[in-house]
Amino acid sequence: MHKVILFILTTVFSLHVVAQGIVNYDIEPMVSQIQSDYIANWKKIGEINGYRIQVASFSGVNSKSQAESVKSTLNVLFPDNKSYVTYNEPYFRVQIGDYFSRLEAYRDLLKIRESYSGAYIVPQKIKYQ
């Protein structure tokens, strides 16, 4: 008998909870303001300290075209990661990815080293997304 009453009460209670289905959030106006200020400030920063994987470095004649060639190959092999060609005299460097942590970069480094054995992780300013 107790089990039947318990079953009926549980069923009625669960139907009452499911029937409501609406959740209202009462957020203080100041909390919303702080959240929007936080987002706006991060958009102003734009770049933070992070990591990229350096795949190749070229200098000399045709170094820019070699770097662009490697970049286009990276875009095909690793379409999820953005690749970059940077110039710091006298080298054109090809880098890939925007990683917040070294561990995150290391995971992709293992995959990239299958195609480019000389790849390594470098600290770099990355774009905050």
Fold and architecture overview:
The longest helix is centred in the N-terminal third of the chain and has 19 residues, at 2-20. The protein is of the alpha+beta class and 129 residues long. It has helices at residues 2-20, 29-45, 63-77, 102-112, and strands spanning 47-58, 83-88, 91-99, 120-127. The chain is built from four helices and four strands, in the order ααβαββαβ. A hairpin with a 2-residue loop joins β2 (83-88) and β3 (91-99).
List the helices and strands and how they pair.
Blueprint: H1 2-20, H2 29-45, E1 47-58, H3 63-77, E2 83-88, E3 91-99, H4 102-112, E4 120-127
Antiparallel strand pairs: 1-3, 1-4, 2-3
Keywords:
129 residues, alpha+beta, Alpha-Beta Plaits, four-stranded antiparallel beta sheet, 4 strands, 48% helix, 27% strand, elongated
